[in-house]
Amino acid sequence: MGSPPYAEQEAAPVHYDLDAAELAAYLPARDEPDDFDLFWKRTLQEHNEPPSIQLSRVDTGLSTVDTYDVTFAGYGGQPVKAWLVLPTATAGPLPCVVQYVGYGDGRGLAIDHLIWASAGYAHLVMDSRGQGGETGDGPLPPAAGTDADGPPVVRGLRDPAEYYYRRVYVDAVRVVEAARTRPELDAGRIILAGASQGGGIALAAAALLAVPASAVLCDLPFLCHWSRAVRVSDRGPYAEVARYCASHRLPVATVFDTLRYFDGMAFAARCQTPALFSVALMDRVCPPSTVYAAYNHYGGDKRMVVWEFNDHEGGGSHQTSHQLAFLRQLLPSI
Predict the structure, then answer these.
(1) Which of 34, 46, 78, 132 has minimal Cβ neighbours within 10 Å of its Cβ?
(2) How many C-beta neighbours within 10 Å does residue 15 have?
(3) Alpha carbon of residue 181 to chain centroid
(4) 177 Cβ neighbours under 8 A, 6+ residues apart
(5) What is the pLDDT of residues 216-264, one digit of tens each?
(6) Phi-psi bin for 72: left (phi > 0), alpha (psi -120 to 50), beta?
């Protein structure tokens, strides 16, 4: 008897984390170090160069948007790339969606980023240093040592001052500060957005900005509740941290002492900006309990959209529809 036609298909993802009721109430204890706020205050003070941003017009062949190749000064004044996409012939200053991208992705092509400009927003897409885009990760701190050539998530993992995401979080703050100097952009209407890694970066930026953003759009955030995520997730960057621990055989405390300075739960608790989150209950890259850990600690007004049968792709364009409606209500002049 032959196999059924679906026999060779990949097995469907299954719920593997806490059940829905447990997730909604999941509020693990935060474990940030006593000097968490001082660490980030000093980090930003060390990298407080005046905001610097340059725009160069790019011809994409499109007639409804104007596109600019952007370079701004990030961590240590190092050049970081971005795209700025504006609706053509729309008077500014415009509210601006600052987007942070997913793990392993660069800023991509300018024509990949059309939705927000089509809705009347400026759209600024930050490259992630050293992750396949056009922005390098260097020069590296002198103590990065043997971890400098590993995957981004483990670079400098033995020391919070040398850890990769310290540089990225400074970039994330600096791009907003630079954007606020541009006459095309409304400094008082900045929206921070991202999925996966981008969502985790958006939480950090929302907490670290001296002048708060207007909204946060946080989908399936990575970089949250590390102590659980590294032990539960079997795919993606959390699993890279687990493999790092296995191959280096460091005391686990060495790794997690660093990661305590970079936990989205701690940043979320310091946020007051209205936020729209999303979670996918079959997500094996960013386990839903880790998303709820950040969401339930979030200090501002918040809403969660749940995608029950989705993995790390989450809600896709359906979630974007929720975001458009959320922002129309929050910023009704759009």
Answers:
(1) 34
(2) 13
(3) 22
(4) 51, 209
(5) 999 999 999 999 999 999 999 999 999 999 998 878 899 999 999 999 9
(6) beta
Helix/strand/coil percent split, the chain, to 5:
35, 20, 45
Q: Tell me how far CA of residue 56 lies from CA of 66, 110, 285, 312, in angstroms.
A: 11, 13, 36, 34
List the chain domain ranges: 36-330
103 contact partners, CB below 8 Å, separation of at least 6: 128, 131, 152, 153, 196, 197, 222, 236, 237
Q: In this structure, are residues 124 and 107 in contact, taking their beta carbons and an 8 Å threshold?
A: no
* Backbone region of residue 156 per phi and psi (left: phi > 0; alpha: psi in -120 to 50; beta: other values): left
> What pTM was estimated for this model as a whole?
0.94
What is the CATH number assigned to the segment(s) 36-330? 3.40.50.1820
Whose structure tokens read 């095309």? 184
CA distance 119 to 162: 39
Asked if residues 27 and 297 have their Cβ atoms less than 8 Å apart, the reply is yes
Helix (H, G, I), strand (E, B) or coil at 255: helix
CA distance 258 to 263: 10
H helices of the chain, in order, are: 20-25, 36-46, 115-118, 164-179, 197-208, 226-232, 237-248, 252-259, 264-269, 288-297, 316-330
Interhelix angle 36-46/164-179, rounded to 10 degrees, is 60
